[in-house]
Amino acid sequence: MTLEQLIHQYIAYRKSLGEKFKTNETNLKNFCRYVGPGTSIGSVTEDIINDFLYGNSETITSGWFVMHTSLLGFFRYAINRNYIITIPLPSDLPKRPEPFTPYIYSKEELKTIFDLALTYQTNKSFVEPYMIRSILILTYALGLRIHETLSIKLEDIDLDNRVITIKKSKFYKARLVPFSVQLAQIVVEYLCWRKSKNYLQYETSYCFIGKNNNPFNIGTMRGIFQRLRAKANIKRTDNSTFQPRIHDLRHTFAVHRLTTWYKENKDVQQLLPILSTYLGHTNLAHTSVYLSMTNTLLNEANIKFEKYAIGEKL
Question: What is the pLDDT of residue 294?
Fold first, then answer.
């Protein structure tokens, strides 16, 4: 069997299990193009795979391990169906890079970004500054992934009960996200502005619309955010490979929420599962990735521990 035939068969199998399988599909198709679609599955060697995985780069990133995992799943599928005898993947893996550390925006930095969203444009374009600002505020205030914010439709917003239904989540399950009275006012003002601009008002219309009434493009939004961040002069000083991202708004929400609970002397351990559910995680391990130990968070945790140590009532 050719590599292309078996890869298509494997992708169809994984999708039949209900998986989206997007990243793995992309990696496997790239591998197929690299080796050659007509190549026999039995002729793929470890040297060929090493050439694909390492390429000309001397830097090992997390992407290397993502591609390795994609190939490992595929070759396990092949060996279980007797298409190959051994898995031709390297047995010695390189050292994993240091875990990515998210950037936690301060309240002052957030305000600067939100304010600049209204004035960053030097030339008028189809992108409405007020819409950009609303997207950013909603993403941070609700702790959403940016693709979740951009997928919100008018029918998903329940102003009476102050709840937004997130349907396109990472883990394929819809969830209800409640919001505050203050945020409700921001949402109402945005919807009124949106109506005044004569955007489509069907229940199935997307809340945030880009060019030609299409859903706002996530790549466009990321590019705009990077320009805003640069204009606000917000950058890392820790020699990190990546500069602050729009996804770090979600990390910032989680850290700010946790810090507030510490300040309010809440039972953080009891509230963590609630935060995990709110963020749309399937378990607490996923939530822990978002809880970077900032100086403020560490200080609040230390204060609470000191009160506990001396027997003061929390």
Answer: 52
DSSP 202-269: -TTSBSSB-GGGPBPPHHHHHHHHHHHHHHTT----S--SS---TTHHHHHHHHHHHHHHHHTT--HH
CB 231 within 8 A of CB 116: yes
- The single-letter code of the amino acid at 234 is I
Using DSSP, state whether 117 is helix, strand or coil. Answer: coil
**Cα-Cα-Cα-Cα dihedral of 116, 121, 125, 126, to 10°?**
-10
Sign of CA dihedral 32, 14, 87, 49: positive
d(CA 175, CA 163): 10
Whole-number pLDDT of residue 306:
46
Residues 6 or more apart from 255 whose CB is under 8 A from it? 104, 290, 291, 292, 294, 297
Q: What does the buried/exposed string (b/e) look like for 34-51 if buried means 16 or more CB atoms within 10 Å of the residue's CB?
A: ebeeeeebeebeeebbee
Q: What pLDDT sits at residue 142?
A: 92
Asked if residue 243 lies in contact with residue 229, where contact means CB atoms within 8 angstroms, the answer is yes
Residues 218 and 150: beta-carbon distance below 8 Å: yes
pLDDT at 140: 94
So what's the pLDDT on residue 170? 61
Give average pLDDT by consecutive 10-residue segment, the chain, 314 residues. Answer: 95 91 93 94 93 83 90 95 93 80 91 93 80 96 93 96 84 81 95 93 92 83 94 86 88 86 79 75 55 54 46 50
> b/e string for 225-237 if b means 16 or more Cβ within 10 A?
beebbeebebeee
Structure tokens belonging to residue 282: 């399937």
Residue 237: the pLDDT is: 81
First to last CA, the chain: 66
Helices 22-35, 62-80: inter-axial angle, 10-degree rounding? 80
